[in-house]
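User: quick one
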Amino acid sequence: MPYDAAARRCARHASRPGSGCDSVGQVEPAPHDTREHGGLDPYLRCAFAGAGKTLAGVLDACLVLHSPQGCHGLIRDALATQRVDFSEAQVVSSKLCETEIVYGGEERLRETIREARSYGAPYLFVMSACGPEVVGDDIAAVCEAMSRECGVPVIPMECAGFRGNEHQGVDIALEKLLDFGAREAMPKVPRSVTLIAPHASANPAWPADLGWVRRVLGEMGVTVVSVLTHKQDMQGIARTPAAETSLLLSHDAGAPTSERLAEQFGVEPVCRELPLPIGLTNTKRWLEALAQRFDAAPVAERLIEDGHRNVIRAIRLRGPNIEFYHRVEAAIAADATLGIPFLRFITEDLEGVPSAVFLRSCSQAARGVLARELEELDLTPEVVIGADAYAMKQGLRRARPDCVFGSLVEWQLGKELGVPYCFRVISPTSRFQMTDRPYFGYEGLINLLEILQNEHQDRWRSRIRRYEAKW
Amino acid sequence: MDRADYILFDGTLAEYLRRVEAGELASKLQASHAPPCKFQTAAAVISGINNVVPIVHGPRGCAQSLRGTRVAGCQYRGRPYEPTLCTALDESQVVFGGEGKLARAIVEADRRYNPDLIVVMSTCCPGIIGDDIEGIAEQLRSQVRAEITTIRSEGFGGDFRSGHEDAFRAIVDLMDPPIETIPYTVNLVGARVGPSYTEVREDIQELQDMLGQFGAKLHSVIAGGCTLAEVKRAPCAAVNTSWCFDWGRRIGLLMRERFGVPFCESGLPYGLGATADWVRKIAAPLGLSAQAEDFIARESERIEPDLEEAKRLLAGRRALIETGPMRAIALARMAAELGMQGVIFNMHPYTLRERKEAVQFLLDSDQNPRVLLTRGAFEMGSYSASKQTQDEMEAFLGDAQDWVYFGSPLRFPGVPLVNLATEIGQPHFGFAGVQNIARRAASAMRHAHRERSGLMRQAMYGVAIHGDLF
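Assistant: Done. Structure below.
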């Protein structure tokens, strides 16, 4: 008997409009420009992972996972992303089993918090996963009681995977961190900034981008009050309201935090309307906007002049074949944090033509930036937001680009589809890196050219030996 | 450090198992040393079938480990990029049910990817809210070209081994009854695709090569890169054997029960005696015992020089073994063959409890080595705790010069160290494995006088260093 979606919907889910049943019968994809949104083979992880990535950036925190043991894998990745020394990682899990799902896991959580307390962390973040949130464990009440018992803050983080994707998880955790750590307004630190969501980036070496931003701010005499989050202690997070300004370092997450800080504490967002500083023009504009806010035009001029000169000099000395990119059709397969600035980098610096843009994510706030960039650059590529791997493959098949700026996944797909060049610049790349090197700024531009050059050369390396040596 | 301060158990494996089962040694385990959940092990098994589309019915985070496995298959096992579908449940579906989304995903999976098999895997959320994944699969079966199967693989639903056992059960359900028994054919069962130290290509290849040496023929490796067609005709093999007893036992017993395929129960083919046992148990039901004895004699003679050299260097010493539990037990037997007394160090109670059936089988086969458990086993996971284990090991070994350590070079026992890091890329299984381990043991003894790397030791056990790189 054939499956009758409509009948099933009526029978089982008549009053369950969110079950997805309303679209069961819609087997055929939607029209071209919208069909790939969302998707079944997503790149992004869940909210639990995003929250973990954020909390792993808080120094001395002990993470208490109220979850089955498998969820720890996401936190292990989060610790690596935030470059947490394995010697200092403090993670415990309640390792929920069927019993706790049936009878509730609150007692198990209490035991786990007591165990976590034995590590001596000054505060504990309790991250709840899907199971305990669905069965209704009262995590907030347990945390409140255990705070009293343990004598340290035990902070509930309701960040179950079903609450959204990893970028939404970043926003959930930032929101809770501010709830807990930055409640009151305080006197402003002159010429100061808080840096938001540097870790919500698909640059596999994103801490170097943060490092570049900090160096630039230092040159301009701007004090960084807090970083939300990377190696940031809770005292720093508590000082966040003292920042005069905020700098959002992601086009994928952090915008709600930026807006909240503006509304609640008068922290002024800067550079919000600009693409992040990747490539010559983006970097120049970003530095100039920053300098304008902090009255540091001479510093910015010097940074721009020196940086520009260094890039030119590096190209002259090393001779990457930048001529390759002239009017080649390039597909961008990235997050918005890198994908949006890549548009101008490819178009202006490399003279390429972005013919397709597949963004695995893009915050609402950044969509305006994307639209303006396309308009200013006079580009009309196919744009897919929320692309999954299927959308990516179909899109590449349609676009037939000369090259792809993407990840390992597009590298594999590109090989199947006969795309001549696939540059692995987006996480995951499968490239082992001992040091982090930025994409931001002039140094970042040089790094990108180096990566592209090596990938280009790899394309031409011999894969077979045509005859044996005689010796 | 006083022994009583750090030694929690020192006795035989049989006694250890008894105390673990009695709950006298609590199975406390830090998160960072938690084994994978049921879903993750089930996913690893499913990934061993070609052209399968798994549909992870749950939030998107659950799909990531499986996706990592499949991308690695693409990178290192010559597979094409294969999708890892996920229904990406959100709050709305958690409240109202996610069956509709699952149904749509199944239809889309069939249409988009043209798979041979669709495997629906449930995770915690749908398991709790009660989505009827079997019902959905059943209703869609006639509407899709691919075969569909389901696995209840909620992360909370069992320990890690229940995941692979349920996945193998689902695979057995896909098999057709045998229409014939193909003489001399052997299935290697219990395999899966996934990064596992003892599952590098070399080990499987070595076992395949060995079968051919005494007249047996490999039928299929279930499920290590097999097709659905191979799964279906797997019961036509004359016998089943496992490459890893712990992983293969369940599917071996199931196929024996369901299809009457004999299962050759033996431990890991790891060490001379164990490898010979493995060969004999396969050969006997195939009527190839004479050929097998010839093969064993040939191979024993071939590897004798390396084995004798290892015995010369190692005999009379004690072996401290720190590896996974099944391998550790096999190594203890191998140590005895080398004239050593084997002691297994920090086999965690949790991991023993999970494998108690397989361990009991080995105990019944008179393998009952000494086991040592220290306090550090319960503190593993953070650097300082790992250092605790290191300190305890050093205290235990003291100034004794007759120990040899078998395990990872990340440990600094202060005695000769036999490097068992399988990334070296040579088999540890079979006769070639005996030869390789013997060579490494001999190398450990010959180079025991050399200083260990201060760099490596500081990285593992030095003081914490703060700040960014450069």
